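The records we work with from here on pair a chain with its fold. These numbers are not coordinates but entries in a learned vocabulary of local backbone shapes. To see the layout at work, look at the sequence and tokens printed below.

. . .
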Amino acid sequence: MELDSCVSSDALLMNIFCYPRMLRSRGVSALLGIAPGQTAYFGYKARVPLTNGRFDRTEIDLRLGDLLIEAKLTESDFQSAAKSVLFAYRDFAEVFDHQQLP
């Protein structure tokens, strides 16, 4: 049901990670920092922690073990947001260099 169209972000990731034996490859697993043989979960409902102690229950394109992957390469309606929205995510400053934001 996640495959709404052939140009969706889910379809892009399915074309990569549903390839036979892809997730059993030690090289791919090492590159991604996951254990070999992980199961791919598409359209995963994540609990992304916010600074106020609550969670954003957004849908993530792909979960592989502890790795969450979001693809935006094929989406024409990519959105922008105020910096204050980004700083509401608990670990934003750890992951991104906020001084590089426009």
In short: Residues 3 and 11 are 6 Å apart (CA to CA). Residues 9-100 form one domain. Residues 9-17 form the longest helix (9 residues).
